[in-house]
Amino acid sequence: MLSTLIRSGPAAGRQLIRSVETPNSLQHIRAISKSSEVNHSEYMTMRENQQQKVSRDYQSKLQIRLKKVSRTLSTLNHSVPEAVQHTAVSKTESREFMAVFPDLVRDLTEFAKKYDSKVADKWFARALQYNVPQGKKNRGLAAVLAYRMLAKPEELTPENIRRAHYLGWCIEMFQSMFLIFDDVMDGSQTRRGQPCWYKVEDVKMTAINDALMIDAAIFHVLKKQFGDQPYYTKLVEMFNDIKFITTVGQSLDLQSAKLDVTKYTMDLYKSIVSHKTAYYTFYLPVAVAMHMTGFTDPEVYRQTRTILLEIGQFFQAQDDFLDCFGDPAVTGKIGTDIEEGKCTWLAVVCMQRASEVQKEIMKECYGFTDPDKVTRVKKLYEELGLPTTYAIYEEESYNMIKTHIQQISRGLPHDLFFKIMEKIYRRDC
């Protein structure tokens, strides 16, 4: 089926999105025309003023391997993603956000000193500084962005902005906690361009306890910064709910790795993505800002969640593609999805398109650390035209989500969703 669609060109790509890739959550949106398109030519132009160099050798080899691909791959061919050139927040806002982090560390180490000053000064602070502020901080910044866009002008006081920054850092701590656990469970080597915390010589399995400390510290921050606010209990409930949802996704991810790769389905994949990634990466930052600004209508939360989970599906498919075909010098991590036997977008679509002989190759090679087997899986992906399939998915899914955003009937400003989309479309890391 997919083979026929790909040969049919862009129009088939639209059908591919409808029949294979569209998240289940689309059924919740009212009367959306799936044939609608939004002009996206601005995103199809290579930017002349590239601000970041990538590994030329890696890109050269990759393009040679993909020379038969007839369609431009936007994710691969933008050495600086559009999101970097048109960031959702300004450099000033990013600096203001970072300026709060030392205060956060001081508050938490002072809290920990009540119990053991040695842990606070020499270990906990180090764990925070190594793990929390090193990434792109998109989730934390998204919470601040959402608050600024949703709050009334008179509510944008220095005190409230400071609270929004602390809330953003709570989300970054939440992210760091899960990454520490995830790296241990996956046996990963690097994270954000440096060794995983548990790979640091004097840390190792102590990282598990450090992640628990970071998790507990989130709720201390929430109590100290928001304990006197009417929405405080909503924030606590939100973090607890999303934590459980994320652990469900992590469990699905780990259990699926034990399955025969031929058992991977798009339904299983979407369930993993929604629970493990989409809720805490996209819905949590916006939902906590909604609580801060007084939103109470359940329908507004439902529509917001539906759109943001769609964006989360789009984001994870990108992540899966970059894990296999991205440049580690740019992504900051060495992809291990094939070695770990993960249920990824590439693996699922491969199973949809593969012949019986090709499925046997996947069974023999997928989920093994042997470099030759990993290379064979990547070669099979290329033989099946998956880079082309992904390019169509990326473009058509982006346009469809834009259309859905424009058709939201109530609640949040459309521009907030567009800014989030701009942040991730055609990223390379």
Can you characterise this structure?
By secondary structure, the protein is an all-alpha fold. It is 67% helix and 1% strand. It has a two-stranded antiparallel sheet. Strand 1 (190-191) and strand 2 (194-195) form a beta hairpin.
Mean pLDDT: 81
Q: Quick one: how many beta strands?
A: 2
* N- and C-termini, Cα separation: 31 Å
What is the tally of helical segments? 20
Radius of gyration: 22 Å
Q: What descriptors fit this protein?
A:
single chain; 429 residues; mainly alpha; two-stranded antiparallel sheet; 20 helices; 2 strands; 67% helix; globular; disordered N terminus
Summarize the structure.
Helix content is 67%, strand content 1%. It has 429 residues and is mostly helical.
Topology:
Layout: H1 2-7, H2 10-21, H3 56-65, H4 74-77, H5 82-85, H6 91-113, H7 117-131, H8 138-150, H9 158-186, E1 190-191, E2 194-195, H10 206-226, H11 232-256, H12 266-292, H13 298-325, H14 328-331, H15 337-340, H16 345-353, H17 356-365, H18 371-383, H19 386-406, H20 414-424
